[in-house]
Amino acid sequence: MSQFIKRENFIPYNLPDITQAEIDEVVDTLRSGWIAKGPRTLKFEKEFAEYLGAKHAIAVNSCTAALHVSLLTQNIGPGDEVITTPMTFASTASTILHCGAKPVFADIDYRTGCIDPEEIAKKITPHTKAIVPVHYSGQVCDLDRIYELADEHNLYVSEDAAHALWSRYKGRLIGNKLRGAASYSFYATKNLATGDGGMLVTDRDDIAERARILVGQGMSHNAWNRYAKGGSWKYDIVEPGYKYNMFDIQAALGLVQLSRMEEMQTRRLAIAARYQEEFGKIDAVEPPFVPEFTTHCWHLYVLRIVPELLTIDRDQFIVELNERNVGTSVHFIPTHTMTAYQKLGWKEGDFPMAEKHFNRIISLPLYPTMTDEQVQYVIDAVRDIVEKYHK
Ligand SMILES: Cc1ncc(COP(=O)(O)O)c(C=O)c1O
């Protein structure tokens, strides 16, 4: 038995990595005379596209907005079906419903938590118009197989890359050489954080053109064009759009965070490597399996417990971590088990792999500002709980 000493301070599950550089850029923006969507948002779009090697990046106020607009660019609506995973956040399916289309869930590959392409294949009907694969936790979906199915059935692929900035599939960045579009989140907990924010990325001119109109109220010109010297006050509404644009205070954070991406990722990867090594030695927990084709950005560290070897379940494991001052989260409660979706006819038991995964998972603290001492403490806390409750 190891000697575990409880620390006094709580280790939060997540903290944003904000330095003086982010603070200075926000203050400069506040003093610049332009705080709405303007030059910084345009610069962030340009630099984000360059970072991924993508043709277009459209800055929006959330990944939810990006996912919604991505589907709208394809005129997806009533009578259409869109296949996605239940192991995701609310937005992935709700944006399908917001288009008036029907979400069709396909179960996950239990090894990774990502949607299983063979389950997608089983769900394709003549009504299927699109697939929304989620690069869960920073793992990447098996894209070759997904695009093969898309080609075979003429389907649009809208990648939910909320977790996947920096992740790579077979060595290529997610978001690079897209055939459809990818949606990113810059919510406070993400690898690049602007508080709230998102980006829609595509190489296709038709998608970018329509998306730019949809995210800006359907306007032919945005405010920056109109209010700049020489700009015209005239505008037209070419279709009823949405108020989905990013603004410059968010973009100020985004620009600095993007410039610090490699530095922040280096630390994330070091912490994840430590967790992988140490949790690999504990039989009652299961570190994430990372397939050969994946370069993981480690947005989340999703540890699975092995309930067969423990006298406590996942919920109690979380209570025990909390009592030891370790913050956690759970990604995700499967969408089909939520009230709104049960009302639409789904029920528990529909997606056994997602449900089995859900019953075992705990997201542990993982962020660049964690100290080595905190990382070691989280490892020791998990080990202590396993020792105490091992069968
Ligand atoms: C997988 C996934 N998709 C979409 C979203 C929505 O992102 P946002 O909060 O930026 O709208 C999230 C948010 O955490 C997410 O985890």
From TrEMBL:
Positions bearing N6-(pyridoxal phosphate)lysine: K190
Keyword line: Aminotransferase, Pyridoxal phosphate, Transferase
Pfam family, one: DegT_DnrJ_EryC1
InterPro entries attached to this UniProt entry: DegT/StrS_aminotransferase, PyrdxlP-dep_Trfase, PyrdxlP-dep_Trfase_major, PyrdxlP-dep_Trfase_small
Catalytic-site annotation from UniProt: K190
GO MF annotations in UniProt: pyridoxal phosphate binding; transaminase activity
One BP annotation, GO: polysaccharide biosynthetic process
Source superkingdom: Bacteria
Family that this chain belongs to: Belongs to the DegT/DnrJ/EryC1 family.
Record's protein name: DegT/DnrJ/EryC1/StrS aminotransferase family protein
Organism: Candidatus Caccousia stercoris
Lineage: Bacteria, Bacillati, Bacillota, Clostridia, Eubacteriales
